[in-house]
Predict the 3D structure of the following.
Amino acid sequence: MEILLKGENVSKYFGGLAALSDLTFQIEKGEIVGLIGPNGAGKTTLVNVITGVYPVSKGKIRFREEDITHAKPYHIGRMGVARTFQIVKSFSGMTVKENVLIGALFGKSGMKRTTKEALKKVEEVLEFIGLEKKKDFPVEETTIPDRKRLELAKALAMEPDLLFLDEVMAGLRPKEMEDVMGLIKELNRNGITILLIEHVMKAIMGISDRVIVLHEGRLIAGGTPEEISKDEKVIKAYLGSRYAKSREESAHA
Amino acid sequence: MSRIKWKWISLVIGCVFLIMAPFFLSAYWVRVLTSVFMFAVMAESWNILAGFCGYPSFGNAVFFGLGAYTTCILMVKLHQPFLVGVIAGAILCTIYAIVLGFPILRLKGHYFAIATLGLAEATKELVTNLEKITKGSEGISLPIIPGDVKVIYAAFYFAMFGIMIVTILFTYWMSKRRLGYAFQAIRADEEAALVTGINAAWYKTIAWSASAFFTGLVGGVYAYWTAFINPEGVFNVGITVKMLLMTFLGGPGTVFGPIVGAFIFEFLSELVWSHFVNVHAAFLGVLIVLVVIFMPGGVMKLMRGKLSLSKMLANIKENRI
Amino acid sequence: MVVLQNIVNGLLLGGLYAGVALGFSLVWGVMNVINLAHGAFIMIGAYVTFWIYYFFKIDPFITIPFSMAFTFLLGYLVQKYIINLVVRAQVFMVFILTFGIEIFLMNLSNLICTADFRSVTPSYSGAGINLGGILVPYIRLAICFIALFLTYLLNLFLNKTKTGNAIKATSLDKEAAQLVGVHIGKIYTMTFALSAAVAGAAGSLIAIIVAISPYMGGVYTFKAALIACLGGLGSIPGVIAGGLVVGMAETMGSQFISPGYKEFIGFVLLVFILIMRPEGIMGKKFFAVIKH
């Protein structure tokens, strides 16, 4: 299996604080990888570091064969890496259609497209996501759930090979969540490799091929969803050592 | 559909009128209109970086001055023809913007504004100090052009008009293409724009360079038109203020906003305030304050919705503390 | 010897510059308003001193409380009835608003006072102490001292009075301050009025040593911006440090490079500082973040 993304001993310091310590990881083409961990573990920081938003303090990151450790964010975006933001960053002052157009004009094949061709791509993506009817709405007049979908649409218009989704399930009702899970699975079937940051266990466990766990900036576990849900270190990190201890005691009783 | 049609029809009529104007208007009005065109170009080009890209330069007058001085120096010291002087001036301004863009365009928002303000002051100082070349604070005079005054005024009229049309066409073309979308994305959210694949530094530099180019062009034409320039006159912060005000009056981030703003402002200026010459400059300040409080989106935005007092008051409700 | 004289001159000038920048930095730090009209208040303070001196022959130093009172009132009115109307809008719009106010005040002053340069020259103008070959003019010494004293007073006010503490709280976290009962609108008005008063005092001091004109404000606004950025927004020790740096840089630059390049040096310094360390010498990082 082709390795799409590889990180070696990646560390990120903010002054004296080690937000990420010595992370080594890889993502294979075609996978859906789940990234979980308690709040403050460094999940979004990791994505920021990979996409070039934060400079790496130590270590190397490779996308396909290219070293992207010090690459600029726009370069990484054009290579085929897209991401959504936890707090959506829509382009104000423009319509829904124009927002997605930006993705289509500057993503992987964006620079070679004419505006007309890009607009066709935009139509496709809007239909896929379900925002067709609202395409001429100014983005300020859309609801929060719509903006979350717009965030995803912008990323998809970039035609990414690797997509980072940062807590897209937050605030969704169970039915909406299932719809999004289905969407993600379909994107994966169409060839996009996905890294999913989530707190909602049902979503992560339901669609991930593999899960990695971050805690206080370190990778403490990695494996299939099954393995992770039984891993003592993970339980301790999420639920605390007293819970882990009581589980241990009741297991031996 | 019919709304857009009316827009284009009125534009064509306007253009035809303006082209015929020198043949039937008095010399005074020809001069006024020439000045309007000049400021329209400056406002429109200021708008490229400020309105579209979101980087408000408070020192764009620096390009006006550099264009004027380059033209003068090339014509007087190096005996070059007018056209060479003007184009050289515009190119110099573009290079100035590219080179200084490196450090300055990294700054955000007001830091950028303050730095450009400083740039204009520093450049003015530099030009004043290079006395051997620029004659310092004395200023440079250009030879008066021989011939019929009316014809000469008409020539400058069309020169400024032509540059204005080119600037408008450029802005219109840009706004519909990748370039324009890059600018708007940068203005909306630079970090998101970067991550989406936009090389912000590159695009910001293009915006400022274009802004510099057009402003430098009219600076050069202005120098020959008035036949005398000095540092305080052409590097004047008042010029930047006017660019700003016209853009805001008309509507920042739109293609025609600054043009509309320029016309409205200059005509108001001439009609109402030529009677109150002294108070004129102070009124500029009052106008800025009023525009910011009541119609921050400019005339263009007002035209999109309906003109209403309640809308203006609503702005205050939203923004007051 | 020349170097020493310049260092002394630079320090004395630096003290004055700290006073120039004080109000500007405070307003920026507390309300996130970059007051481009700051120079106008300095100019107004200068003119109050001039006119009182002109008509009543009162010693300029004594006119300082009057100019402060006048600019305090003016600042109060401007903030309450103009700036407070738009202060929650996009930061850039407020910036332009203050620009408009500056234009208005400058030109109004031009109408009233005419563009002629004016000066205030009290009888003790040239005198000074001679410290082993280094001349320390009495006036410069007094000006530096007064500026720094005002800074000290303001610092005291901010730390020891209820209103002062409210101002500090607002600058740290507007929402939290509101939650504990601080009336933000009133605090903004008070902050701006104080800023204008200190600016007026600085203007009075400036009138004693340079010739004044209605358009003098712009240069000082820029200096204030430079010092505020250098020292860290809203930080009083930072303002003093920044003032001293700029005073020194200007004096040294004038002496050893060329007197005509003051703005140039200031500009280069500003860009350098903004790129390298936007939070300034003493500032905390979050004060340098522009809130939208």
Summary: The longest strand of chain B covers residues 140-141.
